[in-house]
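Tutorial handout. Part one gives the primary structure; part two gives the three-dimensional structure as tokens.
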Amino acid sequence: MFSSSGRRRVLASLFLILILVVIPFIMIYYTSTGFQGARYQQWLKRNERASQPNPSGQPTDQFIVSRDKKLEINKICIEFKGVREHKFILNLYLLDFDRQQPFPMEVSKKEARESITFGGNQFVILSGNDRLIKVKLIDSYQTP
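Part two.
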């Protein structure tokens, strides 16, 4: 009746028709039930928790500074200006002294793990690229 190639064509056609009919029905069922709404609400709750501050109430000691943005830590401000010739370019500000006067600093990528002391705060650059750096506050003490 049917040859083997004709049988394969018929089975392939039936499979294609089945897929083209079943997939839209699955999509309609998924969107019409509350399943997708519940998953969306779970996603919203997870993202809401992630955007809230540290629940322990204690500040974290690691910060991310984007390029041309300022980060205020205690009584200093760190502004990341980018990377030039394998060096991180920073502007540091003493907030008690003068908020407008930057103290430029260049830190080579090789020396980034060494601590930087400025305005009674000691920090290191953990990692970075041309768009952002990750800074860790090591120690903070009061200057006389």
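Part three, for discussion. The mean pLDDT is 81. The chain has two domains: 4-51, 62-140.
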